[in-house]
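Lay summary. Proteins are chains of building blocks that fold into shapes, and those shapes determine what they do. In this project we predict the shape from the chain. Here is one chain we studied, written as its sequence of building blocks.
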Amino acid sequence: MCNLNSLIQRLSTLLVFAILAENQCFAQRSLAIRGAKLETVSKAGTIEDGIILIRDGKIEAIGKEVKIPLAAQVIDAKGKTIMPGIVDPYYVVTVGRDAQSAGETRTIVIRGQTITVPGGSPSSLTSFTKISDSIDLDNIDWKAATRSGITTMQLVVSGYAQSVIVQPTVKSAQIINPDGKLLVSVTNSTQSLDLLRSGLRAPGSSAGGPPGTGSGPPSPGSGFGRPPGGVRPSPQPPSPQPPSPAPPGNPPVAANSSVPSAGPTPPVSPTQKLWTDVREGKSSLFVNLNNAAAILHCVNATKEIKQAKLVFIAAGSDLFEAIRDLDPKTHVAILPPRIDFVPNTRDRINIPKFLSEKEMPFAFSLSLGQSEFRVQLDTPLFAVSSLVYSGLSRQKAFEALTMMPAKLVGVDSEVGSLEVGKKANFLILDGDPFAATTSIQSVFVEGKQIYEN
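And here is the predicted shape, written in a compact code that computers can read:
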């Protein structure tokens, strides 16, 4: 009997320890934030005095009447605002092929505003690189992005490449999708336009097919347009033709007959697959354009490709000049959030508001205007607040920072809004996000705080 009592006592002790351990583990995984104003950027809209419950890095519940587990860690955020983490759809980095020319830059002056673009080598426009194969995330300074509230970003390079989608961590960043979007840069030069035109041609068309290896313009003998120098290849003898099909009722030709076979289908290169997805409308093509003329050249070059979806990265004033040629159904704009000048005048204009009125979809990239990006780290949404106070709707501003760029880079099922099941990537601000003096207090990625002001 004594042994039985002793055994029961030991089992009870083990059970208590197991429950305590489970509660401790649950407390580590569960986080509840209450009392804040929640800007969900979803159908739920704005929730006053709301509660957001996070478990295992994802949003488990959100609303006004959310039951908080006893074991959850609780943060009181009364008087604060919570919004989704910012998604930057065009975050320029230097990798691989640009390393030798890292010191080179291209300076573009647009209506008195100077924009410095990394990489000055013309060959970078047409030499392909897959960024995830050549990037070292630990050697990039992510502090500016983190302080600005950017929790997801599409890393890009100038020129011709495939992007990579990453999110910052406490010390560095991690890749969440190594196979991003196809990127090209288009100027007024024939070289960059030829890359775009040839990439969008269907394989086997009379004008040629897409780049076979992704290493730049096609080489002679690649079946890709006319060789350099205008010399046409010598005519080849006609290939044997198969016999005419037998009339109905006749037996088919034997399998071992002398009819020549078509041969094995050549393998599809990674870049051909990227271009095919663009032609078929399965993926968007991101096109960096340095002036309004380049936008029009690009629209002209792609007008026959009805299914292609193009994302134009351009200055607001250039988009203003080209707006009549843009199609809201197939074109999307990415621009820095700023008040621009009407071309050839000193009159200021709110281009995002103008695009919104024209029903032209757009997204913001905080990092596109590098000078403003670095200066406004303490109040990163100041430029967006200026647009809101001069007429841009709050909802469009929120969407341009979060949900729209998330859709463009293909991560809208995981981030971009505060909804159940999505990653707990969000910002806690000390006031209204679009008040001029509001600053970011904390940045969370997958429920973990990676920055505190």
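What the prediction tells us: Confidence is low (pLDDT under 50) at residues 19-27, 100-104, 207-240.
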